Amino acid sequence: MGVNDECARIREDVADAVNYLLAVAKPTVGNIFVLGASTSEVQGKRIGSAGSKAIAQAVVDVTKSICDRAGLFLAVQCCEHLNRSLVVERALVYRERLNPVTVIPSETAGGTIAVRAMETFVDPVVVEAIEADLGMDIGDTFIGMHLRRVAVPVRMAKRSIGEAHLTLARTRPPLVGGTRAVYPRDIWPKNQGTSTGEKPTLRPADA
């Protein structure tokens, strides 16, 4: 398979994954989508060892396009060398009062995914941390540190992008109140139960 064919397949698979996650998570306009990806892992190589600009372009551009249409802010995670800082739009920094850091991501410190985000965002800023509402991890880059509580895995038939392990996640507010509490019935989207695969019994309000 040539490079163009490979990138076309990656674009298609990334679009399927992002659209599936949005269909399950049902985010609202203004929510934050965090993306972490290793282009090395997509190629079947060790993370950080073989960055690819072409794959980064395919992953970031497709994800950003879908997020833009859905009215979501995209946050792109840098690699471990930059402590997994994130590239975001300046508008999000102001809205969330985020803490910027002083660095320009490069291919060797930040990764090709972050470099592509810097190239395509309108007014990119690198921040230290964020609390995102949903996200996609391609290649086990550990986006969990940037998801708000409580993170919930989203399962789909596709388990990889290229050779890289694919993980999708949404979030929900913590459940409080114990056995006497009453919870909304849409907390667990269809086919997305608890970690055991079972949906807790929702009791009616006390008479």
CATH class: Alpha Beta
Number of DSSP helical runs? 5
Shape: globular
Q: Total strand count, please?
A: 8
Main beta sheet, described? 8 strands, mixed
Low-confidence spans: 193-200, 202-207
SSE ordering: HEHHEEHHEEEEE
What does this structure look like?
With 207 residues, this protein is an alpha+beta fold. The chain has one domain (3-176): 3-Layer(aba) Sandwich (Rossmann fold). 29% of the residues lie in helices and 18% in strands. Strands 1, 2, 3, 4, 5, 6, 7 and 8 form an eight-stranded mixed sheet that branches. Strand 7 and strand 8 form a beta hairpin. The longest helix is centred in the first third of the chain and has 23 residues, at 3-25.
SSE topology:
Layout: H1 3-25, E1 32-37, H2 39-42, H3 53-70, E2 73-77, E3 86-89, H4 90-96, H5 112-120, E4 124-127, E5 134-138, E6 151-154, E7 160-161, E8 164-171
Parallel strand pairs: 1-2, 1-5
Antiparallel strand pairs: 2-3, 3-4, 5-8, 6-8, 7-8
Distinctive features:
207 residues, alpha+beta, Rossmann fold, eight-stranded mixed β-sheet, 5 helices, 18% strand, globular, disordered C terminus
Condensed summary:
With 207 residues, this protein is of the alpha+beta class. The protein contains 5 helices and 8 strands.
